[in-house]
Specification:
192 residues, alpha+beta, Heat Shock Protein 90, five-stranded antiparallel beta sheet, 47% helix
Length: 192
């Protein structure tokens, strides 16, 4: 790469610093990567977060998000022109109010409506209804080929106590990029 084509890394670093980004990753998700990311974040949380419940909540939500990425990326079998369909995005930010975990991955267009419906359902119900949905889903004994029973988004919403934010962006006629943001307030009462 020539000097004239070089990215302004200082500007990138300053933007990441201004946005309080603790970690950013783009690439293929593997079990080794998941273990490394969890170790890095656990160490950072131990250093910067005084509230044990908040540390535990961020860590547990991150585990669930990474499991979702691993499960869904493993099942991808489509082409995304110019991109690797098995890559994902992970960003973890913090500020005085709390933390945000952001994930992004490619999904086939035929899965988009089902994901939207599921997340919208989770976002539309109360904490008590969410708890009941979690128990019903857990007790129904139906598990997908990926090993989950649809508990991932429910568990994330319960643990964060917040609505799940998401977007789908069209990549081409068959593929969209799914972004999910989970906000985790500091010092909030932990869900059971």
């Amino acid at each position: 790469m020539s000097q004239s084509a070089m990215i302004d890394y200082l500007a990138l670093y300053e933007k990441m610093h201004e946005n309080n980004i603790m970690l950013t990753f783009k690439g293929e998700v593997s079990v080794d990567l998941v273990n490394s990311v969890l170790k890095i974040i656990e160490d950072r949380l131990d250093r910067i977060e005084e509230d044990r419940k908040t540390r535990k909540k961020v860590y547990n939500i991150l585990v669930e998000c990474l499991q979702n990425l691993c499960n869904h990326i493993d099942s991808t079998d489509f082409e995304v022109t110019g991109y690797d369909s098995k890559t994902a995005l992970l960003i973890i930010e913090t500020d005085m109010k709390g933390y945000s975990v952001v994930t992004g991955n490619y999904v086939p267009k035929d899965k988009v409506e089902g994901l939207k419906t599921r997340i919208d359902e989770i976002n539309s119900i109360s904490k008590d209804e969410l708890r009941a949905l979690y128990k019903r889903t857990l007790n129904n004994g139906q598990f997908s080929e990926k090993g989950g029973g649809g508990l991932g988004f429910i568990d994330i919403a319960r643990k964060s106590g917040q609505k799940l934010k998401y977007t789908f962006q069209k990549v081409n006629e068959e593929i969209e990029f799914f972004s999910l943001q989970i906000d985790i307030p500091k010092g909030d009462k932990e869900e059971e």
